[in-house]
Amino acid sequence: MISRFLDKDDPAEVRRLVPLLTLARLVGNSTFRLATPFLAIIGRGLGVSLPTMGEALSAGEFTGLLAPLIGRRADRHGRRQAMSIGAVVVGVGALIAAISPTALVFALAIVTVSFGKLLFDPAMGAWIGDRVDYAKRARVIGITELAWAGSMLLVIPVLGLVVATAGWRWAYVVLAVAGAAISWAVRRALPEDRVAPDARTSARFRFTRAATCGVAGFALLMMAANCLFVVFGAWLEDAFGFSPAAIGATAIVLGVAEVTATSSTIRFTDRIGKRRAVIAGAALMVPLGLALSIVGHHVVLGLIVVGVYVAGFEFAIVSGLPLLTELQPHARAASLGIAVGLGTVGRGIVSIVATRLYAAHGVGAAGALGSICAAGVIVTYGIGLRGVGHLSSA
Question: Considering only CA atoms, which of 233, 214, 313, 275 is closest in space to residue 34?
Answer without folding.
Answer: 233
